[in-house]
Design a protein that fits this description.
The complex is a heterodimer of chains A (about 290) and B (about 300). Chain A has about 290 residues and is mainly α. Chain A contains 14 helices and no strands. The radius of gyration of chain A is 25 Å and the shape is globular. With about 300 residues, chain B is mostly helical. In chain B, a hairpin with a 7-residue loop joins β1 and β2. Classes of the chains: A mainly alpha (about 290), B mainly alpha (about 300). At the A-B interface, α1, α4, α5, α6 and α8 of A face α1, α3, α4, α5 and α6 of B. Chain B: One of its GO terms (biological process) is transmembrane transport.
């Protein structure tokens, strides 16, 4: 976010500083350019690799641009494995988690911020404390639980355990605490129920933070790997990341196909970034809020 | 800032019926998430401890073995090696990602034309999945067809098996981890930097302080809360790294990149020893817990 600040009226030693400042600016751009290259080269190389023929992708010395664009690599990825199905699976799981989580977290956060009941603060502290529990420790018991429920290889296993998330509750609670109470008070005097006030006033007002969290949750679930890897055996139940990793194991020498699959898997995240950049970055800034 | 809500006020004038309704609404609103957290976060951590005292093959039923898993763990060289790899990863990764992302934030905070575009680019790795990133870099690190070895050959350096060499695989993975996360922490640092009043720098300049001095005397001290947050989060995260390593090396070569979570995964889901895997997981939890406590203690002592 760019802010404008008043420039200092007087600049002492301007005469002496000038060459140093010019050098500094050049150095800033040089470093920026270097990091930008380091950031983009792997990505560009992946996309170029996905468009080379099987022979060209392993040629030495490597070519930069493909001699002819091998678009059929993409067709091949979608025909050797049901990649379309994997994308639909992932889309369904990520959307379900996001929608349900936002609703549940909003409700819980509203109760913690606005409704009065005994033990509210203790409950809030308890919820925040769950943030300290590392995922790697809860992994095995959660797997056993999901297995004993008969959920392995079902959407339930992919969706339900991904919903509870103290971070979302925490952020939404902060947001509700900051909302002016006047509207809610007025509705209360008009005889609205607490649930009605939440549904008709508080929830619509929290749209900006919901958009931020939705972008954030969707991307996190789109990119999830370890949990889906553990709870799905049936190839038809795979999500994109699991399918891509499995595919790369089964076709470990077909770099052009692996890169085509990786490009497809990367696309939703990149598109999300392109169009919803503001929300994503806002989400990260909020995650640093302590 | 976390600010706790004030305790509920008791106003005798309020009709009891409304209070009751509010309590019921609260219970209803809280139920889904509280049950979810209890079942999928709190219960599992208790269960992990219980399971760690059993011998549980994923196919059969558990049998109580007391502390046997922990005895086995203490004598298991692979476990110790995994802890060593995790520690090594942490010790290199945490300072590196801290320095790089702070440096990027300082660059991206410059008020110069085009800097916004660079900031947009630096952030791109954050939106890629760890699987995609891992595969992308495996392609670059590949001994025969990789771009890196080709680039090295241009300056007459010999090719290397980056992910197949016990001395190079972990550093290579650390570089990738920094590449993945630098944009994320840059964003957090940027938010912190933008909270520092510009006037401080101007005052310092008028007093004749150079850029370097301003950085040490103004930026770093005022960035302390942000820095601490980044340190805690990167530290706890680095103890749990899994995805990119699993995709790039599966813990190899010769366990050189087998961090503890990879060993837990192998024990639980490849060898199906759920009891032993839980013991390792709980030991890791203790390590993370002690390190976090030490960190909080250090912070508090300083303040």
């Amino acid at each position: 976010m760019q802010r404008s600040y008043p420039l200092p009226v007087t600049r002492p030693h301007r005469h002496v500083r000038s060459p140093g400042r010019w050098l500094g600016t050049a150095l800033v751009y040089l470093l920026c350019l270097l990091v930008a290259l380091l950031t983009l080269i792997p990505l560009v190389w992946m996309i170029l690799g996905s468009l080379k023929s099987a022979d060209e992708v392993v040629a030495y010395p490597p070519t930069f641009l493909p001699h002819h664009f091998a678009w059929h690599n993409y067709v091949e990825v979608f025909t050797t494995v049901p990649f379309g199905r994997y994308i639909l699976n992932t889309f369904f799981v990520a959307t379900s988690v996001t929608v349900v989580a936002l609703l549940f977290h909003s409700m819980a956060a509203y109760a913690l911020a606005r409704l009065k009941f005994r033990g509210r603060d203790a409950l809030f502290l308890g919820i925040v404390a769950t943030l300290m529990i590392p995922f790697s420790v809860t992994l095995i018991p959660t797997f056993i639980l999901v297995k004993s429920l008969g959920w392995l290889d079902t959407y339930w296993a992919l969706i339900i355990p991904a919903i509870p998330n103290a971070f979302g509750i925490f952020l939404l609670r902060q947001f509700y605490l900051g909302l002016p109470v006047e509207l809610e008070e007025a509705a209360r005097l008009d005889g609205a129920t607490p649930a009605g006030i939440f549904w008709r006033i508080a929830l619509p007002m929290s749209q900006p933070i919901l958009a931020t969290l939705a972008t954030f949750f969707f991307l996190a679930n789109w990119n999830a790997y370890l949990w889906p890897l553990i709870v799905t055996q049936n190839p038809n139940m795979r999500v994109t990341q699991v399918a891509l990793a499995a595919f790369s194991g089964e076709h470990s020498t077909s770099w052009q196909l692996i890169m085509a699959g990786a490009t497809v898997a990367a696309l939703p995240g990149l598109l999300l970034y392109l169009f919803l950049q503001r929300y994503l970055i806002e989400g990260i800034k909020l995650s640093g809020l302590k | 800032m976390t600010r706790l809500a004030t305790p509920p006020l008791r106003s005798p004038a309020r009709p009891a019926r409304r209070e009751r309704r509010e309590r019921w609404t609260a219970a209803l609103f809280l139920a889904p998430d509280v049950i979810g957290l209890a079942v999928f976060v709190v219960l599992p951590i208790v269960a992990a401890l219980v399971i760690s005292f059993t011998n549980w093959n994923a196919l059969g039923s558990p049998s109580w073995v007391g502390a046997a898993n922990y005895q086995r763990l203490l004598a298991d060289p692979v476990f110790w090696s995994s802890l060593r790899v995790t520690a090594l990863y942490t010790v290199i990764y945490v300072p590196l990602v801290f320095a790089v992302s702070l440096g990027l934030a300082l660059l991206a905070n410059q008020r110069l034309p085009l800097i916004g575009a660079f900031r947009t680019i630096f952030f791109v790795p954050v939106v890629l999945s760890l699987v995609v990133t891992g595969l992308m870099w495996r392609f670059i690190f590949d001994e025969q067809v990789g771009l890196l070895n080709y680039a090295l050959s241009l300056v007459h350096l010999p090719p290397r098996a980056w992910l197949g060499d016990v001395n190079l695989a972990l550093p290579a993975i650390i570089v990738v981890s920094v590449w993945i996360n630098m944009g994320y922490y840059m964003t957090i640092f940027l938010a912190g930097l933008q909270d520092i009043p510009r006037e401080y720098y101007e005052a310092a300049r008028i007093d004749g302080a150079g850029g370097w001095q301003s950085f040490w005397r103004i930026t770093l001290p005022l960035l302390r809360p942000t820095s601490l947050f980044v340190l805690v989060v990167t530290l706890i995260g680095s103890f749990q790294v899994f995805d990119q390593i699993w995709v790039m090396t599966k813990g190899g070569p010769a366990d050189a990149t087998q961090v503890t979570v990879i060993y837990i995964y192998k024990q639980a889901f490849q060898y199906l020893s759920l009891g032993y895997a839980s013991a390792i997981a709980f030991a890791l939890f203790l390590v993370i817990f002690v390190v976090s406590l030490a960190q909080f203690w250090l912070v508090r002592k300083e303040d």
